From TrEMBL:
<feature type="domain" description="Pseudouridine synthase I TruA alpha/beta">
    <location>
        <begin position="144"/>
        <end position="246"/>
    </location>
</feature>
<dbReference type="GO" id="GO:0003723">
    <property type="term" value="F:RNA binding"/>
</dbReference>
<comment type="similarity">
    <text>Belongs to the tRNA pseudouridine synthase TruA family.</text>
</comment>
<feature type="binding site">
    <location>
        <position position="111"/>
    </location>
    <ligand>
        <name>substrate</name>
    </ligand>
</feature>
<dbReference type="InterPro" id="IPR020094">
    <property type="entry name" value="TruA/RsuA/RluB/E/F_N"/>
</dbReference>
<keyword id="KW-0413">Isomerase</keyword>
<dbReference type="InterPro" id="IPR001406">
    <property type="entry name" value="PsdUridine_synth_TruA"/>
</dbReference>
<dbReference type="GO" id="GO:0160147">
    <property type="term" value="F:tRNA pseudouridine(38-40) synthase activity"/>
</dbReference>
<comment type="function">
    <text>Formation of pseudouridine at positions 38, 39 and 40 in the anticodon stem and loop of transfer RNAs.</text>
</comment>
<comment type="subunit">
    <text>Homodimer.</text>
</comment>
<keyword id="KW-0819">tRNA processing</keyword>
<protein>
    <recommendedName>
        <fullName>tRNA pseudouridine synthase A</fullName>
        <ecNumber>5.4.99.12</ecNumber>
    </recommendedName>
</protein>
<dbReference type="InterPro" id="IPR020103">
    <property type="entry name" value="PsdUridine_synth_cat_dom_sf"/>
</dbReference>
<feature type="active site" description="Nucleophile">
    <location>
        <position position="53"/>
    </location>
</feature>
<dbReference type="InterPro" id="IPR020097">
    <property type="entry name" value="PsdUridine_synth_TruA_a/b_dom"/>
</dbReference>
<dbReference type="Pfam" id="PF01416">
    <property type="entry name" value="PseudoU_synth_1"/>
</dbReference>
<dbReference type="InterPro" id="IPR020095">
    <property type="entry name" value="PsdUridine_synth_TruA_C"/>
</dbReference>
Length: 265
C-alpha cells in the first residue's frame, strides 16, 4: 500500500466546498474520489489539508490517498485529469511514507482574499474576485488587519455552525496589499474556523467604509459573540493557497493560480 500526496487546483464556484456532503450535493473531494477510484481500480478515500466553504477556490490544496495499484506518477496525473471536470486539476503527486497525513500533519494554512475595488463590476473576473464599488480607506484597513495577528479568541469571527472544539487560533500574519484596483488579503494561521477569513474581511471592509474605527476590532474580539462582528464577505474572492508541513516531508511549493495569488505581500 503506497501513500500519495497530491496538490490540487480548483475553481469552487459550482461546488459546495471541499468536503463530501450528503448525496446529490457536489463537492470537490467526492468528485476527485470518484475519478481516483476509477484510475486505481478500487475505492479511494481522499484526506484534505482542510475544508473550504461553498464556492471557495484553491490553488494548492494538499491531500493524500493510499493505493496498492502500480501506476507511474505521470499515469496518475494524466489518468485523473483527463476525466475530471475542467474546474478541478491535480498539479503534482509525490510518494510519501505512511507517517504523512494531509490534515493532521499540517502545521499552518494560508489563504488569500482578493477584492476588486472599482466603480464598475468586472465581467471576466466574475466569481473569481469580490467586487466592492465603495471608495475604501486602505491605510485604515491595513492598520485594522494587523489587529488580527497573534493569538486570539476568534469566537466573534466564526460561523454559528462551526464545529471546532475551541476558537483560539494563532495568526502568523494578516497583511492587506493594494495592487492597482486589487486589494489582496494574505493570512496565515495554525488553523481556521468556519467563515473566519470571510468574517475578518467583512469587518475590514466596514472599517474601510468608515463604519467604525480601527479600535472597534478590539471590542469585537472582547464580545466573543458573532453578532458583534460585521457581515460575512462573499466566497468569490477567497483562495486556499497553501498548507505547511514539517520540512521532513519536502512537499513541492509551487506558485499556481492567477497573478494576484503570487503578488508579494
Amino acid at each position: 500500500m503506497q501513500r500519495y500526496a497530491i496538490g490540487i487546483e480548483f475553481c469552487g464556484t459550482h461546488y459546495r466546498g471541499w468536503q463530501t456532503q450528503q448525496e446529490g450535493v457536489p463537492s470537490v473531494q467526492q468528485t476527485l474520489e470518484e475519478i481516483l477510484s476509477k484510475v486505481a481500480n478500487h475505492a479511494v478515500q481522499l484526506h484534505g489539508a482542510g475544508r473550504t466553504d461553498a464556492q471557495v477556490h484553491a490553488t494548492n490544496m494538499i491531500a493524500h490517498f493510499d493505493s496498492p495499484s502500480e501506476r507511474t506518477d505521470r499515469s496518475w496525473i494524466m489518468g485523473v485529469n483527463s476525466q475530471l471536470p475542467k474546474d478541478i486539476s491535480i498539479q503534482w503527486i509525490k510518494r510519501m511514507d505512511t507517517e504523512f497525513h494531509a490534515r493532521f500533519k499540517a502545521i499552518a494554512r494560508r489563504y488569500r482574499y482578493v477584492i476588486y475595488n472599482a466603480p464598475q463590476r468586472p465581467a471576466l473576473l466574475n466569481k473569481q474576485v469580490t467586487h466592492v464599488y465603495h471608495e475604501l480607506d486602505i491605510p485604515k484597513m491595513q492598520e485594522a488587519a494587523k489587529k488580527f495577528e497573534g493569538t486570539h479568541n476568534f469566537e466573534s469571527f466564526r460561523a454559528a455552525a462551526c464545529q471546532s472544539n475551541q476558537p483560539v487560533r494563532h495568526v502568523k500574519h494578516c497583511t492587506l496589499t493594494p495592487h492597482g484596483p486589487f486589494l489582496v488579503l494574505d493570512i496565515q494561521a495554525d488553523g481556521f474556523l468556519h467563515h473566519m477569513v470571510r468574517n475578518i474581511v467583512g469587518c475590514l471592509l466596514e472599517v474601510g467604509q468608515n463604519c467604525y474605527d480601527v479600535e472597534h476590532i478590539d471590542t469585537i474580539f472582547a464580545a466573543q459573540d458573532r453578532k458583534a462582528a460585521g457581515v460575512t464577505a462573499p466566497p468569490d474572492g477567497l483562495y486556499f493557497i497553501q498548507a505547511y508541513y514539517p520540512e521532513q516531508f519536502q512537499l513541492p511549493n509551487i506558485a499556481l493560480g492567477p497573478q494576484w495569488l503570487n503578488w508579494p505581500i
